[in-house]
From TrEMBL:
Keywords, in A-Z order: Amino-acid transport, ATP-binding, Cell membrane, Membrane, Nucleotide-binding, Translocase, Transport
CDD domains: ABC_MetN_methionine_transporter (cd03258)
Alphabetical list of PROSITE patterns matching this protein: ABC_TRANSPORTER_1 (PS00211), ABC_TRANSPORTER_2 (PS50893)
Organism of derivation: Alkalicoccobacillus murimartini
Record's protein name: D-methionine transport system ATP-binding protein
Pfam families cross-referenced by the UniProt entry: ABC_tran (PF00005), NIL (PF09383)
Length: 341
């Protein structure tokens, strides 16, 4: 477990002091994918670089399994850094070395030799899906392939934690998704804790289990992705959520729905957690003598569940409609009748 306590970083410049990270307290559990989101200048890079002491905190503690890294000697730090791999937006590969030699590099530094090193490199190439490309140079690879080399290199010495500094920001949307899928895959396969920073809510939505929102050096909101997405508290979080919401259920949209609807009861269903996965609508139709039409809505999948709203219209006999509504109420879903006929 990683615990950040009252973490602060102040850069002293001739033009004055810049507080890049200001009193950050976070707990990052083992085995999850923890995302930190914020606009440019929010302090994300400085924060993630303090997790492996590439940047020394001005104040506060970075505790890994109860040990404060700020108190480590350089030798202890070198050892602890082997337990934390890192990948970067611009890959930071060695351009004069092949894929194979890039991946072998951290093993050379760690003193892994001969057949053992060869076997490990082969294993890593397979893990990140770069079979057949081992003799290529970085300049001969696509952005996605370069990041795969970065990931393999970061994983070479079996770290417990992978730090990702805007790892997909230089990639197109399709390649971004394939790299995000790979991160989820290695998180599960290797039980690796992943901490990433990003300015894209899509990245948080697709792979993170927990999120912290940063603004001006501070964490302004944090929690399980599903909870934060369903009930964002801060304006900054709501702004980020707009990046992935194609339609909002504004009062106007709802009013239009009500105006346009013919006969039947209109019900707003709000799903959270696993309930959206359940085939509620088909169950309703099968169990009761009613017709159900979906009028409008969106269900978004996040790690650990789904959330979203559906507007449905139910037509049929009054007593059947009543029974159907009672049935909905027994499910893990909030239901509100917006209009009855
Ligand atoms: N080495 C440094 N020296 C001086 N100021 C710095 C240094 N690194 C970061 N800063 C300042 O700290 C603040 C936070 O920067 P940081 O790079 O951590 O933010 P960020 O959220 O990662 O943004 P970006 O995505 O643009 O890198 C900024 O005002 C930045 O100018």
């Amino acid at each position: 477990m990683i615990t950040l306590k009252s973490l602060r970083k102040v850069f002293e410049l001739k033009s004055g002091n810049v507080t890049a990270v200001d009193d950050v307290n976070l707990t990052i559990d083992r085995g999850g994918i923890f995302g930190i989101i914020g606009y440019s200048g929010a302090g994300k890079s400085t924060l993630i670089r303090m997790l492996n002491m590439l940047e020394r905190p001005t104040e506060g503690e970075v505790e890994i399994d109860g040990q404060n890294l700020a108190k480590f000697t350089n030798k202890e730090l070198r050892k602890s850094r082997q337990e934390m791999g890192m990948i970067f937006q611009h890959f930071n590969l060695l351009w004069s070395r092949t894929v194979y030699d890039n991946i072998a590099f951290p093993l050379e530094i760690a003193g892994v030799k001969g057949e053992k090193r060869h076997e490990r490199v082969k294993e890593l190439i397979q893990l990140v899906g770069l079979e057949g490309r081992d003799k290529s140079y970085p300049s001969q690879l696509s952005g996605g392939q370069k990041q795969r080399v970065g990931i393999a290199r970061a994983l070479a010495n079996n770290p417990k934690v992978l730090l990702c500094d805007e790892a997909t920001s230089a990639l197109d949307p399709k390649t971004t998704d394939s790299i995000l899928d790979l991160l989820v895959d290695i998180n599960k396969k290797l039980k690796l804790t992943i901490v990433l920073i990003t300015h894209e809510m899509h990245v948080i939505r697709k792979i993170c289990t927990e999120v912290a929102v940063m603004d001006n050096g501070r964490v302004v909101e944090k929690g399980r992705v599903l909870d934060v997405f369903r009930h964002p508290k801060e304006q900054m979080t709501k702004e980020f959520l707009k990046q992935i919401t194609e339609q909002d259920d504004t009062d106007e949209t709802i009013q239009e729905l009500l105006n346009d609807a013919g006969s039947g009861d209109i019900i707003q269903l709000t799903f959270s957690g696993t309930s959206a996965e359940r085939p509620l609508i088909s169950e309703l139709i099968r169990t009761f003598q009613i017709d159900v039409s979906i009028l409008h809505g969106k269900i978004t999948k996040v790690q650990g569940g789904s959330y979203g709203t559906l507007f449905i219209q139910i037509t049929g006999d009054q007593s059947e409609k009543k029974k159907a509504l009672e049935f909905i109420m027994t499910k893990e879903v909030e239901a509100e009748v917006l209009s009855r006929d």
